[in-house]
Amino acid sequence: MSPARTRSGNLAANLVAFVRLLRGRGLPVGPREAADALRALAAVDLLDRREVYLTLRAVLANAREHFLLFDQAFREFWGAPEDEAAFPGMEPDGPAEVLEDAEQVVREWLAAAEDRESEDDSAESPGYSPVDVLTRKDFSALTADELDAITALVGQIARRVATRLSRRMRAVRRSHLLDMRRTVRHSLRRGGEIMELLRRRRRLQKTQVVLLCDVSGSMDLYSRFLVQFVFALQHAVSRVETFVFSTSLTRVTDALSDVELRRALDRVARTVPNWSGGTKIGVSLRQFLEAHGRRLLGDRTVVIIISDGWDTGDVDVLEGAMRELNRRSARVIWLNPLLGSVGYEPLCQGMRAALPHVDVFASAHNLDSLRRLGRHLALR
Amino acid sequence: MHAEIARIQSMLGGEGYVADREIATAVYLSRSLRKPLLIEGAAGVGKTEVAKVMARALGTDLIRLQCYEGLDATTALYEWNYQKQLLHIRLTEASDRTVEQREQEIFSEGFLLKRPLLEAITRESAPVLLVDEIDRADSEFEAFLLEVLSDFQVTIPEIGTIRAVTTPYVVLTSNRTRELGDALRRRCLYLWIDYPAFEKELQIVLSKVPGINADLAAQVAGFMQLVRQARLEKTPGIAETIDWGAALLALHRDHLDRDVLEETLGVLFKSQEDARVVRTQWLDLWLRGLERLRAEPRPWSQAVLERIAVEGALRR
Description:
The complex is a heterodimer. By secondary structure, chain A is of the alpha/beta class. Helices cover 52% and strands 10% of the residues of chain A. Chain A contains 18 helices and 8 strands. In chain A, β4 and β5 (249-251) form a beta hairpin. By secondary structure, chain B is of the alpha/beta class. Chain B is built from 15 helices and 9 strands. In chain B, β6 and β7 form a beta hairpin. Chain B starts with a helix and ends in a 5-residue tail after the last helix. At the A-B interface, α3, α4, α9 and α10 of A face α2, α5, α6, α9 and β9 of B.
């Protein structure tokens, strides 16, 4: 959207155009926020750029993650917030304009929406943003600079995924609470004598997460991110058990529990004997079932396998192990980093054998796909 | 700057709260648009303080609802006074009223205990309602709160609907341990409070640690900037800075050196792991940074400190 095209002397029209720009960039704002913003502007000093900037940010950017996008859009649309000069198109035309703000904003909003329908819809779809491009880019095609940015995002996503998880799996310390309200009401029938304590019941829901992460050679590049993801996830959720495998299985929950990522990774590297070797998925899963299945599997367990499915072991062993894993857990999620590549089909033998026993088969090749993961984790 | 924002800024200043423009603007907007203010930021940057100071500056009461895991509507809104109800049942035992009548009596306003939310909307003059650490409550409670905040009315099945007499000024704080829902965010104005820059923290130290000399205050504020570059389990906030300043004052120290730092480390770093990492990894680097800082011409600035942090490889 070009500011020049929409820019007129009308404050409300400009504001609506600006809010639409923000919306196009993915900020959750709409007519109500636009109306609030106009009301807010009416209450501050419009000739003070910094004040206008702070005001619009307080109303329109309601999470810190949005500040960057907001600043960028603000700069493009109104100019730098530090500039001393007044805004073009920000001079109030008169007090009357500002008074009927809400109504006018809605009218502007609708008018702009009609305009757009007759033109094209490109401005409304999520526009260019560096974050956007990063999140869609395949991990294997990143430059060193981008890697750093990604690291921070991965942690953020893991926390968000964990948030979704913990709502469902939160342990309730006292599952039976005294319900005084009903108890007293009940006692009336017996002349105020409390014969019976009525209790409130709370649903007890705990989800166990088991992560099985492939660290063999073919997964090398992805593993670095996925282990970070796993690390962040483990620190955000209370009931996670993490294992890595290539030709055999190693439990790394304790190694990963170090608060510092680098130290944790060192510990993992020291614990795991065959980092980046060949892959025997079937054997590794079998090993898991036998050593940990009884303790960890059950109808409240989500099993997440992160692997590309390139198995150099016996396919029958893999199939059998997957079948059992599926039967003994509530959900099996298979994350495959190759699934994102264009034209990839799960043709390799191992993957084909495992697929019928997987509840969710999803990609894990970029940040977007990790973000979507949260959806699959919550059990009803 | 709008005159009223300037007034709020100096009003907060008068209450001993060093407010920059962002904070003053947000408080002003929240008041004039009558929208709740959601404040986020790391622990210990003074989020809760904003509500307290706001109440004092407005000359109104502060009603605080501290959130925690498992907080439910009963604890936040209202509860019946069970002892009083039981007593009433006993006292009316001999009367000839029916059970239904007696039931109606004990579920009337006289037997109602107001909890913070109900209290806040039934006051004669609008109080400041502080919903502290909303991220610690469950998402169900968040949804419930959203409902109360949009209608400012509460329905009690036995009594009926209670409408707000006045709309309270609402301040919510969150430490971001849980992501808040979009619906709640959109209902609120948003303020992010960062760790203060050197200049602001110096001002805070000077106003909150009475009797501290300007030179020590500058060293303390400068040192905190270096400390916050390190990645620790718990980065010390403003409260720690103030405590530390007071501790140094009580020990009659006016110069920061290794001895005094080791002596007072516990004031700043409250986990054993942090204290260990600081002793083994950071203390030497910070002391060197402090030496560099002392060599700089005064007054020091945030820019100088950032340069020192980069040059001293303190950023981690």
